[in-house]
Amino acid sequence: MQLKFKGLVAISIFTLIALIGIQGYLIYNTYELKKKTFSIDARMAISKVYYTKEVDSIMWLYRNDFFTQLEALKKGEISKKDALQRLKQKTEEINPGFLAVYKKGMEAEMPGVDIQFKKSVSSISVSDSLGNTDTLYKEDDPDKIMLLGENFDSQNAALITYSNWQEDHDFVNNGNPDFFKLNFKTSIFMNVLNWNSVLTKELSVLFVASCLLFLFVVGLLYYSIQNLMKQKRVAEIKTDFINNITHELKTPLSTLSLATKTLTSEHANGNKEIADGAVQIIDRQNTRLQKLIDQVLQSSLGYQEIQLSKETFNGSIFMNELLDDYLLSVNSSEIKLHRNIDSTGIALEADKFYLSTAIINLLNNAIKYGGTELTVSYGIDKTDSTHYISIKDNGIGISPKYQRFIFEKFYRVSEKDTHNYKGLGLGLYYTKQIIKAHGGSISVESEANKGSIFTIKIPII
Fold this sequence. Notes:
This protein is of the alpha+beta class.
């Protein structure tokens, strides 16, 4: 049973981990798909804004100016460096106008999304009529030229496209017609600044739903395991109770059987002494059986069903008298009982019979479970305005893991040789019900092999 239970718990935990993995994988795939879709949407939005007449007219401002610089270069009026520098200056002049158009267009296409745009030069070369090519700018040139947009690190951005502007240009060079062919290559990049926040916002509903579903499954699994553990514990308690009650009933029944056989045997005929002895045995065992049945019936009562007959009395006198009577019922030579009874001067209001029963149950338990030295204390706890009664022993003690169960009906600690001690597991349950009926509380402090301290608290009325 224990092995099956552990196996079921292990399978449940493994299933939960697998569910987490599958759910995480699905969310990750959804994120990646959304990312690709978003990237496609962003590219399309940029294309719609970029390929417009307004942007095209802005680009022709630096193109026409660059043709003028190339003519001057061919005439020997300026150097390559001067031509490129002029290109930079011109693009810087027109860039604010382009950014205004771009941001307005992108806000209309994808509102709330901050997408940076950059168009930069990849290479520039010029060929003459004879086919000779002069390279003005190489792709690996460290002095990067940005044409339009915002300057950001291209390595962390997405490449949208390459473009190649090729055009033949005729001009007059020193009174003679001349010609050159321009090969102007550019790269266009985009950089989404709030990429994660946009995707997170889009996936928030899915993420929240997944988390809620996961929490529901975890809660359901926890609830199921808790119920299973509770049912397992109840089954063990019932089995334990049946074994204990069977053991308790077996002795008087066996004795009754022997006494009955003695009465019906030929030795009892005409022998009054044997017959009287057998009758007395039957009477004692009958009384024992009756007490055992009464114990089960009485101890099964809940605190709501206990009818108290409260009276007001001196707690210290009550405790001393109770302990005097109790010592007469046990072997006082084997038990050392220390008293720490305060004369509080505050009356205790309780049912003497039921309160005595609860205290005696605790004393009997202390002795039954190895206690040879007991300390009984009584006084007033001013912090919570209660009468307290504590019983400390030097018995076998109770492990912390079992302490929250010991006041349950039929529960007995199933550890080491604890079950060698007789009992039905009802004493502490009944004691707690009595104290609860008084509006009080009972608690335990204990460690294995270090004894226990049971403390009763009853409110001051």
